[in-house]
Amino acid sequence: MSSHREAPEIAKDPVADNTDVYAFVSPQRPKSVTLIANFIPLQKPDGGPNFYEFGEDVLYEIHVSNKGTAKADISYQFRFHTKIRNDKTFLYNIGPISDIKDPNWNRPQFYDVVRVKNGKRKVIAENLRCAPVNIGPRSTPDYPKLANQSVHRMVGGRKVFAGQRAEGFHVDLGSIFDLGTLRPFQSLHLIPTADAMGVNATKTFNVHSIALQVPIKEVTRGKGRPTDPMSKRAVIGVWATASRRKSRMLDPETGRTVGHGPWQQVSRLGNPLFNEVITPMAEKDEWNFRAPDGDQRYEKYVNKPELAKLLPALYPGVFPNLAKYTKPRADLHAVLLTGIPEGVVDGFQNFTGPVPSDMLRLNVAIPPSAEPNKLGLVAGDAAGFPNGRRVTDDVTTIELRAIAGVTIPLVDPSFTPDKAAAGIEDGTTNDNPAYLNGFPYLGNPNGGYQTTPGDSAVS
């Protein structure tokens, strides 16, 4: 749900669909920052023989803004190409894949990495190997080994990984889109049923990740690594995009489409859930085509979010204070569009300037937390969302509580949040494969053979 099938047009183009973006100071390498962009949502692990892969006709990018303009000052570009080793078989692999160079892997993918700074392009890696998908114990008998081989070191102290990962985002999609139901509180819903535990809709699914680790000094303004959290230089804005050529034509000789013309952005993502639950349906496709520096047109939806109006209506009597609050949501405006300025939270700021723009904002001078709290900044952990986003941050709960009003007193001390606001959640926890302690942090993907499809129900 963070940005899975969040707009009508991109839902038809999953290979270019940007699902989640993460940005955090690397715990094992605190002088570096890790940037992760996920694509291709809701992958069934057993989806062969044509398993999921990056698009050869898609330009994937991770952008960094460090001058307060909400424009990309540094971009990392990723282009993929695929080889077919044996054109006489329909199989993805013709035996166990014991190594990422194994000839049994019939359809390996490779990629190049380009860094663009101030309009100047520099190739920093070529023909790097992707990790294969996790097929099963016979085809990919030692998947962690294959994943480790797919972590590549580059010049300048950089690391990169591209390949399949376990979905790290958890949410109760079936519940939330059934008229805003939150199972732990559904007895209080306008159409009540008995309370229940949340159901993680993304359990057993995979995504494709591009993970990049670079020195902090490479992505900040000026020279050196900022160490003062109050410095403007310490804050960067991060988002990711996918682009296609402006026109595509079907080649009847090959049965494939061929792109022509300049690149056109078709998907983007900064903060989790922005386009999903803030932008109206009629504007979601346009939002995906636009750059963050033009997000002023969406301010009105942040200042008066639809979900903040729906909660009191769907849960009568539960959010009386929220129902009466009519001021523009300056708290959400700061979190989602400008960053939090100095003076709101003691010893913290991630303000990127007055230009309203949907970006993850990361203060790189704040070190990784010794005891991370999945609720991030609202729980006193300044190293977590909305200061960037770690893979373990429970962004669904954080944003639900923010919309319900727990962050309003930060900017309006006269407001008292409703008691239910501090406990609101969708009731899910991450029961996907375990996160990793090191790069690329997201867990190894669910295997096609090992994964059991869930139960079905009709009523």
Distinctive features:
alpha+beta; 459 residues; five-stranded antiparallel beta sheet; DUF4331; globular; DUF4331 domain-containing protein; 24% strand
Textual characterization of the structure:
The chain is of the alpha+beta class. The chain has one domain. Helices cover 14% and strands 24% of the residues. It is built from 10 helices and 12 strands. Strands 3, 4, 5, 6, 10, 11 and 12 form a 7-stranded antiparallel sheet that branches. The radius of gyration is 22 Å and the shape is globular. The model has no long low-confidence stretch (mean pLDDT 93). It comes from Nocardioides iriomotensis. It holds the Pfam family DUF4331. InterPro entries: DUF4331 (IPR025566). This is DUF4331 domain-containing protein.
Radius of gyration: 22 Å
Alpha-carbon distance between the two ends: 24 Å
The domain count comes to 1
Q: What is the helix tally?
A: 10
Question: What is the mean predicted local confidence, pLDDT?
Answer: 93
Report the sheet with the most strands, covering strand number, pairing sense and barrel closure.
Answer: 7 strands, antiparallel
User: Judging from the principal axes of the Cα atoms, what is the shape?
Assistant: globular
Helical fraction equals 10-25%
Instruction: Classify the secondary structure makeup into a structural class.
Output: alpha+beta
Question: Secondary-structure element sequence?
Answer: EEEEEEHEEHEHEEHHHHHHEH
- What is the number of E strands? 12
User: What ranges have pLDDT less than 50 throughout 5 or more consecutive residues?
Assistant: none
Share of residues in strands: 15-25%
Protein name: DUF4331 domain-containing protein
